[in-house]
Amino acid sequence: MIAGEREPLLAGKKIVLGVTGGIAAYKAADLASRLKKEGAELRVVMTEAAAEFVQPLTFRVISGNPVHSRQFEEPRVWSVEHVALAEQADLIVVAPATAQIIACMALGLAPDLLSTVLLAARSPILAAPAMNTAMYFHPATQEHLSILRARGVVLIGPDEGGLACGATGTGRMSEPAVIAAAARRLLALSGRLAGRRALVTAGGTRERIDPVRYIGNFSSGKMGYAVAAALAAAGAAVTLISAPAALPPPAGVQFVQTESALAMREAVRERFAASDIVVMAAAVADYRPETAAAEKIKKSGGELVLTLTENPDILAELGRRKQGKIIVGFAAETEEARARGAEKLKRKNADFLVVNDVALPGAGFGVDTNIVSFLYPDGTARDLPLMSKKEIAGLITEEIVRLLPNDNKSAKENENE
Ligand code: PMT
User: CA-to-CA distance for 363 and 388, rounded, in angstroms?
Assistant: First the structure.
C-alpha cells in the first residue's frame, strides 16, 4: 500500500454474493464491482434464472473467480462446494433477493446451489429484496420476511420507485451503494462490541389516567429496536427496555417490557451499573397524571380537569452518574432542532445526541426512515440525509465503537473489581 492510501475497508473479507432472477440482477454487477473495489474476496453464486438476466461472464470478470451456478453441473465439485462457500464466507449478500429465494430461506428449502449455500451458512446474511409490489406485500412474503428478520438476517430495502412491470411502488432493489455500505458496516462492526453490555430504551411510554385510558405519544419503537439490533449484531449483550410497541423484539436481545416512564426508569436503574453503553431512544412522557383513577372515569356532562405532575428525566439522571459509560440520547424536536438539541445534550451530559426534527416528512415517529444529526459536546455536528432507521442505527453503533475506551474492560468487570 502506498503511504497515505487508506486500506480498502473489506480487505481480506470473503463475501459470497448470491444473485437471483429479477431485473435488478443487472444492478448486482455494480454491487459486485463496489465490493471488489473495497478489497473483498468475492465469490458469486447465481441462480439459473439470474443467469438468464445477466451473463455469468460479467460476474466472472468482476470477481476474478469462476461463477457458481448449476448445482449438479459438476457433481464432484459442487458436493463440497456449497459447504465450502458457506463455511468460508464472512458474509453472504443476496441481491436481488426474489420472493422465491426469500421463501426458500424462511422455510429452509434447498432446491438449488444458492439456497443450499444459504442453508449451510454460518456467517451473517444480508438480503436486498426486489420484486413486484403485490408479491412484496403478499402475506406469504411478509411472513417469510418476518421470519428472516427474527433470525437476524439483515434486510435492506426494498425501495419505492419504477418497477420492471411498468408500475410504480415498493419493490425496487436498494441502490448498490447502499447495500455495499451495509455490507461494510456489518463486517467492520462484527464482534467489535463483544463483551460489552448495552441498554437500549424504545417506544412511547403510557401514563395511565384510569384503567382504560392513558396519555401516550406516537413512537412506534422502530428507531430504538433498530439500535438494539445493530448493537447486538456488533456483538454487544443488549437489553432492550421497551414501552408498548407492536414490533417483535430483535433476535438475540434480552427484552424487558415496561409501560410508564416510572417503570422504565426503574428497569433502567436496575441495569445501569452493569452496562457499558446506554442509548435512550424511547419517547418518555415528561408528565403523568398526578393520580391514576382506580375505576374508569365516568362522563359527568361537564369539563374534566387532569392535573399532571412532572416525570423524572431518566437520561439526565444517568448523565449525572456516568462512570465512563457511553451514553447516547435522542431529541425529538419540532422547531429549532439544532439549538434545542444542543441545550439537551449539555443538560443531560450525553456523549452525543441524535436530534430529529419530527415535523419533517420521512422523519421521526412511526416511519421506517429518519433524518438526524449527531451533536457532540464540543459543539460539532454531523448531519445525515434521509436514511432508513436501520442504517442510522448502524451509524450510531459505529460512533459508539469509536467512542468506547480501548481498555477492553467491561462495566461488569469494573463492577466486580
Ligand atoms: O419510535 P419511532 O416511531 O421509531 O420514533 C423514533 C423517535 C422519534 C421516538 C426517536 O427518534 C426519538 O427522537 N426518541 C426520543 C424522543 C424523546 O423523548 O425526545 P425528548 O427530546 O423529549 O427527550 C430527550 C431525551 O431524553 C431522549 O433520549 C429521551 O429518551 C430522554 N428522556 C426524556 C424525558 C424523560 N422524562 N426522560 C428521559 O430520559
Answer: 10
Tell me the per-residue pLDDT of 342-358, one tens digit each, with 9 for 90 and over.
999 999 999 999 999 99
In degrees rounded to 5, what are phi and psi of residue 229?
A: -65, -40
- Pick the more confident residue, 109 or 188: 109
Residue 281 Cα to ligand 1 middle (Å): 5
In 70-195, beta strands by DSSP E: 91-97, 125-129, 154-155, 159-162, 168-172
Contacts of 124 (CB under 8 A, 6+ apart): 91, 92, 152, 154, 186, 190, 233
Tens digit of each residue's pLDDT (9 = 90 or more) over 191-218: 889 999 999 999 999 999 999 999 999 9
Among the candidates 141, 156, 189, a domain finishes at: 189
Whether residues 50 and 128 share a domain: the answer is: yes
237-242 and 197-202 beta bridge pairing: parallel
156 lines ligand 1 (CB under 6 A): no
Cis peptide bond prior to 96, omega within 30° of 0: yes
* SS3 of residue 407 by DSSP: coil
Determine the distance separating the centroid of ligand 1 and the alpha carbon of 329, expressed in angstroms. 8
47 by Cβ neighbours in 10 Å (0-12 / 13-18 / 19+) ranks as buried
Neighbours of 117 (CB within 10 A): 26
Range of the domain at 170: 14-189
Distance CA 95, CA 113 (A): 15
Do both 311 and 344 map to the same domain? Answer: yes
Is 344 contained in some domain?
yes
CATH code for the domain of 64: 3.40.50.1950
Listed residues 189, 207, 228: the one ending a domain: 189
C-alpha–C-alpha distance, residues 171 and 136, integer Å: 6
- Check the CA dihedral 159-164-165-168 and report its sign: positive
Cβ of 283 closer than 6 Å to ligand 1, yes or no, is yes
Mutate to test the pocket of ligand 1, among 280, 286, 322 (most ligand atoms within 8 A of CB): 280
The dihedral built from the CA positions of residue 403, 408, 413 and 417, taken in this order, carries a sign that is negative
| Residues classed as catalytic | 165
> Distance (Å, rounded) from C-alpha 341 to C-alpha 338?
5
Give the strand order in the sheet containing 254-257: 254-257, 237-242, 197-202, 277-280, 326-333, 352-357, 372-375, 381-383
Q: Is 223 in the pocket of ligand 1 (CB under 6 A)?
A: yes
